[in-house]
Design brief:
- By secondary structure, the chain is mainly alpha-helical.
- The chain has one domain: 434 Repressor (Amino-terminal Domain).
- The longest helix has 14 residues.
- It is globular, with a radius of gyration of 13 Å.
- The termini are close together.
């Protein structure tokens, strides 16, 4: 499990997973149903990326999200 605390870290995680699956940005965009520009901006940590589309891309890569409140312990 990896802790993501900002857009840049999320983008790096997505880029790393995309590359480990040997997908190009174009291939991932087609599989996720988003534009190539969105993938590029997401991987670069653009602040205004839409969370719904980011989650859609993550699901396409087989990634999931867990949210913890302050003081909650990670298992």
């Amino acid at each position: 499990m990896q802790t993501i605390q900002n857009n840049k870290a999320l983008g790096e995680l997505i880029r790393k997973e995309r590359k480990s699956q040997k997908l190009t940005q174009e291939e991932l965009a087609a599989l996720a149903g988003v534009g190539v520009r969105f993938i590029r901006e997401l991987e670069h940590g653009k602040e205004s990326c839409r969370i719904g589309l980011a989650i859609q891309v993550m699901q396409t890569l087989g990634l999931s999200i867990a949210v913890y409140g302050r003081g909650e312990r990670l298992a």
